[in-house]
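Researcher: Please generate the 3D structure of the following complex. Treat every line as part of one assembly.
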Amino acid sequence: MADPVPMLEARDLARHFDVSRPFLQRLLAREERRTLRAVDGISFTIPKGTTLSLVGESGCGKSTVARLSVGLYGPTAGSVRFEGRDLAEARSLADQRRRMQMIFQDPYASLNPRWRVKNIIAEPIHAFGLVKSKGEEENRVAELLTQVGLSPLDGEKFPHEFSGGQRQRISIARALSSNPEFLVCDEPTSALDVSVQAQILNLMKELQQRLGLTYLFISHNLAVVRQISDRIGVMYLGRLAELAPAESLFKRPRHPYTRALMEAIPDLDMTGRERIPVGGEVPSPITPPSGCAFHPRCPLANERCKRERPEMKPAGDAMVACHAVEEGRDDAMPMPAIARTAA
Amino acid sequence: MSNVAPLLQVKNLRVEFPTRRGTLVALDDVSFDIAPGEVLGVVGESGAGKSMTGAAIIGLLEPPGRIAKGEILLGGRRIDNLRYEEMRRIRGKEIGAIFQDPLTTLNPLYTVGRQLAETMTTHLPIGPGEARKRAIEWLEMVGIPAAAQRIDSYPHEFSGGMRQRVVIALALCAEPRLIVADEPTTALDVSIQAQVIALLKRLAREKGTAMMLVTHDMGVIAETADRVAVMYAGRVAEIGPVREVVKHANHPYSAGLMASIPPLDRRVERLAQIDGAMPRLSAIPKGCAYNPRCPQVFDKCRTYRPDLINAGTTQAACWLYDTEAPRG
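Model: Done. Output below.
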C-alpha cells in the first residue's frame, strides 16, 4: 500500500441491468420497470504487483466486477481508475489497453476452434503492432508457449487437440502476449480438475513473481483464493461484506456471512463431521431485502439490520459492512472451525 | 459392513465404444460393491470413467457404448443384460438417479407434484390421491417450505437449490434400494451444497439406502462417503475406507490427487501438482496407465498392468504393493 497510485481503484462502483419485460407486456400486466442491481456500490483498490480476490456465491456480482474492471461493461455509477486514469479514457488509448487483459472461466468457449494456437496467441501482438517482422512474431509466440509450460511446436495445433488445462495455458499465453501488467481472471480454474487446477495456480503465481503482474482474481472457492491472494473481498448480493488481508480473513473472519461461508465449506479433515449449512438461499438481486441484504439469513440480525444498510467500516485490519460487528455484538456467533484451528 | 451381503456388485465391468478407428475401452475391469446403507464415493479426473460407471449401472450408456464384459448385480440379480422395458421398471423402483443439472432431469411442462405422483403410481401400489399426499410429504422431507402450496409449481418457479431438492425427492420417492448420484452438488453454491449433502446423508441413513456418489469434489467425498474408489483412465486405481484414501492413500495417483487439493487451513507457497495430463482413451500407455506421470515408476510398471492388490489399509492397483515379485 506504499505505492500511492494503485493499479486499479474502484470507487462506489455500480452496475445495474434493466431486466424489465418488453414495453407492451409491461403495460398490459401493469408492471413496474425491473432493475437488477448486479453491483451496487463497491470500492476497492489493487496495489501494483498484488492480487485481490473477490469471492461469493453465484449471483453476488463478482463476475460483473471483473467485466467492469477491464471495461467490458461501463459503470452505471461510480468510477474505475486504471493507474489513476479513468478507465474509459485508458481504454481509448491502445498503449494503455494493451496493459490489461482478461482470462475467462471456460477454456472450451474462449478459444476460436478454427484458428491454430499460434494465431490465437499472436492476435493481440498483431492488434497492438508489437512486433516488426514475421520472424520476431514467431519467436515471441514460441517464447510465450514455453513460458506457460507448452512446447513451441504446439503452436501448429488446433484448440481441440488440447485438454482443459492445456487450453487454459493457451488462454494465459494469449493474455500475456501484449505484455500486460494487469490481469483479470474470472474463475480461471473452476472448469478444471483439481490436479490441473494446482498446475494452473502454480503457473499463475510463478508468472506474477516473474513479470510483476497485478491480478484481480474471481472465484467461488475459498481454498483456492487463500493460496493466491494478498487481499480478499467477500461479496454478497452486489455489495462487499468484508475486505481484508488474506490471512487475516481466514484467522479472524468478521462478517457473519464470511463466517457462515467458511463453516459451510467441506474440508478433507471433516470426515464424518456434519457441516453447518447457511440457512436459506441468496435472495434475488432484483428485489433485495431491506437494510443489510444478509439479514434474513443472519443469526445476529436485529431491527437495525432490517432497516438500515450497513456501510464498510474499519475493524482491525479489515473493512466490514455489518452493524453487529460495529456494535460489538458479533461474539454471539462462533468463529468457524477453520479459524479456530488456525488460531 | 463386510458381514452384510452387498446390494450392488460390479464385477470386471468392461465398456467399449466401437469407432471407425477401432474400439475404445472406456472402462476396463472395474469391480466394486456397495452394501445396504453404505455410501461409496467415486472420484477421479474428468474422463476417468466415473460417470460412465454410473451410466452403466443404471443402464443408460450412450450408444454406441456397450458393456462388453463383466456383470452388474443388484441384490444378487443380474441387471446388465435386461431388456429396455425390464430395466425401465428397475430404474426408479430399485435404482434412483440424481444428475448434476436439475433442469435436465425435470420435465419443464409438468408440475413437480405431477412428476412425483407419476413416479410413485408407476412404481408403488398406490392410487393418485395417496401419491399426491406422499408427494407433499416428500417435498417437506427434502426441506421445501410451504410444500402443500408449491406442489403445483413448475420446475422453473424453483431456484437452483430447490430444484435439486425436487430431483432428490424424485429419486427417492419410489424408495429405491440404490441411488446413483452423479455430481449432485456440483452446480450448487457451497451453502446450498451443504444443505443437499446433509439431506442425502440423512435420508440414506434413515432408509438404509445404498449410494454411489460420483464427484470430483474431494471435500464432499470426505464428509459423505464411507468408502472411496479412485478411478484413473477407465480403471479403479485404489479403493478403501474414506479416511485411509483421503489421508493415507497408497496408490501414487490417489496420493498425488489428494495432495493437489488446495488446503483451506493454511497457505502454501506452491501446491503439489501432478505433471502432465490423463491419457486419452485412444492412447492409454502400456502397463500401468499412470506410469508416465508416476514419481515412483519402475520397469515392471511400463510393461505389466497391475490389478487391485492388497495394500494394507486399502486395495491399490500398483506394483509397489506386490509382495510376490520384488521390484524390477
